[in-house]
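queue> holo job accepted (S-adenosyl-L-homocysteine)
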Amino acid sequence: MLDRLRLHVYPKEPLTCAKLTQYASLKLETKRRAKPTLHLLHVGRRKEKLRSAEAGAAADPKHKESSAMEVSGLDSDGKEFKNAEEMWREQIGEDGEQQEKKTQWYREGISYWEGVEASVDGVLGGFGNVNEVDIKGSEAFLQMLLSDRFPNARNNQHLVALDCGSGIGRITKNLLIRYFNEVDLLEPVSHFLDAARESLAPENHMAPDMHKATNFFCVPLQGQREKNKKVGSKKVKIAKKGISADFTPETGRYDVIWVQWCIGHLTDDDFVSFFKRAKVGLKPGGFFVLKENIARSGTFLLSHSLI
Ligand code: SAH
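queue> job finished
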């Protein structure tokens, strides 16, 4: 069971996004012990009718059903889905066939990015011009978070962040490394991670006050237990390729785990297990920051091209 997470939404409006509301309800509930916090930045039109995404309220099972399951959707070929369940059934199948279809789901995700140029324009799907406004908005949010929740940040507190699905290190380079003494990057696509490593190397990048990018993890966010379970000898091959089993962060290393524009790659159950695994990586009082786009019309969109 996942400990209850407090959920803050920024800007301070509830969410329309079915998926995130659903996450808030289904996944971030139960026990009341330590309370890691998930901060959501959401990007989208402001006028929409929005639902409360207060995690406590959302943990109500009635809310769970009405908010999450009845939202219809479309894929990028125009195919309609009655609800998210139907979409997932088609994408990753029923229990019995899930393993294979899931592997396929992730393979397609990764191979898309493997064909993309390691540039800002590439990781932003041709919308490189969004970079500046994205960083500006995130910086305002981060400053608020730091001053509200890390009162000692100015007194030489050693701050560490993890940039998940980091791509070429755009967010680390333009934002995180200016505020955190150390930033680790997690990215499953090796040519992106190589580009990040190079551009963040001390000889290529002047970070303030000895701030640095420390670790570069070439792994996806979802666990890979299936592969390990299946055939013992395969395990070795996977390890050789530099893809470890589940990514589990070092205990208590991070003040902030930043997850931006990549969580949509995960199936719902992997989303849950990612947060369960990753929360051990947070220092007491640490935060997840999840930044995602929201659907415009209260429907969800499954994009086969990922953009
Ligand atoms: N967050 C970065 C990159 C966004 S592009 C930025 O905002 O600049 C989406 C990134 O998600 C790509 O780098 C892609 O390789 C990564 N990604 C795709 N599948 C993933 C997975 N299963 N786990 C983690 N990251 C994934």
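queue> Residues 106, 109-110, 113, 123, 165-167, 170-171, 187-189, 192, 220-222, 260-262, 265 surround S-adenosyl-L-homocysteine (CB under 6 Å).
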